Structures are given as structure tokens and as C-alpha cells.
Amino acid sequence: MTVDELGSHLKANWPSIRAQLVAGTYQPKPVKRVEIPKPDGIKRLLGIPTVVDRFIQQTVAQVVQQQWEPHFHPNSYGFRPGRNAHQAMHHAQATIRQGYGWVVDIDLEAFFDRVNHDRLIKAP
Q1: d(CA 58, CA 61)
Q2: Which of 17, 58, 99, 107 is deepest in the core (most CB within 10 A)?
Q3: How far apart are CA 59 and CA 13, in angstroms?
Q4: pLDDT digits (tens, 9 = 90+) for 103-115
Q5: Are residues 3 and 51 in contact, defined by beta-carbon separation less than 8 angstroms?
Q6: What are phi and psi of 64, to 5 degrees?
């Protein structure tokens, strides 16, 4: 299904999809796996969800983001609305000019490719 077809699909199928979401029985479809070559020769595996699953992900993300965004540290810049890498660099430069000598950069690249999913799901 294409993005252009999503509207008509949701009009026809939303009551059923919504009922599954509310009941907790909705099952996302398997993602399409695509390999993206990186400059260092390593291929990064990318999972592309269906259009419907992506729509649901974004809907949940918007609700969760509204709930949790106010609780994030003001100096956190990664994957946050209205924030980007350039702002993070400007902030780091400003704090260095103020006399601070440390910058913490955490890169979670491929974290979910390497983490033990069974342990993650069972974690409290």
C-alpha cells in the first residue's frame, strides 16, 4: 500500500484496526528489510514498516512525546522536536567557553541490533 492509499484504507478499515488496538490484539506486519551501504563498507540493516504500521507508530509517538518531552534534560538534543545536531554543537561550544571541560556524547547507533531483546522486554 502506498501513502496515497492510506486515507481510503483507514476509512474502510479503521473500526476494525481501532478495536484491535484497544483490545491489545493488533499485530504489526513484518517489516521489509533493506540493506543500506555505509561509507566504511558496512551495510546497515533498515526495517521499513507497512504504511498502516508507520501511521500507528507515529500516532503513538505523538502521544508519548507530549507526555514525556517536558521531562527530558534541557541539554539533551538527540531525536527531539525542534532540536538538532547544530544546536547541540552550539551548546557544547558555549559551555566550553564558560570554562567547562567535558562534553558527553552518547551514540546509540545499532543499539537495538545488539541488545538482548528478551532481557529488554523482561526488564522492570
Answers
A1: 5
A2: 17
A3: 16
A4: 777 777 777 778 8
A5: yes
A6: -65, -40
